[in-house]
Amino acid sequence: MSNSILSIRNLRVSIQSRDGSLNEITRDVSLELAPHEFVSIVGPSGSGKTTLLRAASGLRPPNGGTVVFNQMPVTEVPKGLAIVFQEYNKSLFPWLSIFKNVAMGARDCSSHERSERVTKALAQVGLSGFETRYPWELSGGMQQRAALARAMVSDPQILMMDEPFASVDALTRNHLEDVVQKLWDSSTFSALMVTHDVGEAVYLSDRVLVLSARPSTVLAEIKIDLERPRSHFETKQSKRFVELAAEVLEKVEEAGRQSVQGKELI
Ligand SMILES: Nc1ncnc2c1ncn2[C@@H]1O[C@H](COP(=O)(O)OP(=O)(O)OP(=O)(O)O)[C@@H](O)[C@H]1O
């Protein structure tokens, strides 16, 4: 894909075990992310999804292969890339108000512009009125909204998310998925999301990539041809959604079986 905003080619990441041996996590992962495309990565536990995202975002150097963002090799987290992690309680500073936490994402702006951006981002995630609260005064879902606002305030070209809704209850999860969907619909950023939840991946994405068991490669790529905007009530009850979710789940289970067989061989 020539117009990719992010291009990952033949990515290999190995992690040193305590005994000093190298553990190969991803062996050969390639993916292209187009402007304003939403791609999710699913796969069995331990297949290296988080490791892949960390290498793709510049948080850890790969052992082989390349990551290119906006035609530039990624060697550290580049400007224009924002990341949201699962553990909102660790990613927000408890001693800063919600306003100041979100403003951390726009440190490079003048104070007037920073203030405008924070106000807009808080409104986009439904947190207007909570500016002076502290993270520990908000529910988990609200804290994750604040983490999303902090990512959005930098006006990213790519939003990477690692299991962003895994620590909240099912209803809050649905709400947060729609917050992300609305943000994505009303902006131009591309999104790369790691998730365990097949339904969530299908609901939000244009494409879903399924990783094989470790050392991982891309086992399958499934195009999600559901109309947008999507809604929990209509989309998730549609025949096509159910077919796509079953297709993704089948591939994840196939990868999981490989992983079990691999363990039996060790
Ligand atoms: N810093 C580290 N040191 C040692 N091993 C690590 C480190 N980070 C990851 N690993 C190992 O790499 C493998 C892949 O981990 P990773 O978290 O990327 O997988 P994952 O697919 O995201 O897993 P899950 O779905 O369970 O969150 C795991 O076996 C993990 O134990």
* Global mean pLDDT: 92
Low-confidence stretches: none
**Global shape:** globular
CATH domain class name of the domain at 1-77 and 194-266: Alpha Beta
Query: What ligand species are in this complex?
Result: adenosine-5'-triphosphate
Helical segment count: 8
Content-based structural category: alpha/beta
Order of strands side by side in the largest beta sheet?
5-4-1-2-10-9-3-8-7-6
Strand content: 15-25%
For this structure, the CATH topology of the domain at 1-77 and 194-266 is Rossmann fold
Biggest beta sheet summary: 10 strands, mixed
The helix content, as a percent range, equals 25-40%
Radius of gyration: 19 Å
Strand and helix map with partners:
Layout (H helix, E strand, L loop, with lengths): L5 E11 L5 E12 L4 E5 L6 H8 L7 E6 L2 E2 L7 E4 L3 H4 L6 H6 L7 H14 L15 H13 L5 E5 L7 H16 L4 E5 L3 H7 L2 E5 L4 E8 L15 H27 L1
Parallel strand pairs: 2-10, 3-8, 3-9, 6-7, 7-8
Antiparallel strand pairs: 1-2, 1-4, 4-5, 9-10
What does this molecule look like?
By secondary structure, the protein is of the alpha/beta class. The protein has a domain at 1-77 and 194-266: Rossmann fold (3-Layer(aba) Sandwich), CATH 3.40.50. The chain has eight helices and ten strands. Strands 5-4-1-2-10-9-3-8-7-6 form a ten-stranded mixed beta sheet, with helices on both faces. Strand 4 and strand 5 (72-73) form a beta hairpin. The longest helix has 27 residues, at 239-265. The model has no long low-confidence stretch (mean pLDDT 92). Bound molecules: adenosine-5'-triphosphate. Adenosine-5'-triphosphate (ATP) binds at residues 15, 25, 43, 45-51, 196.
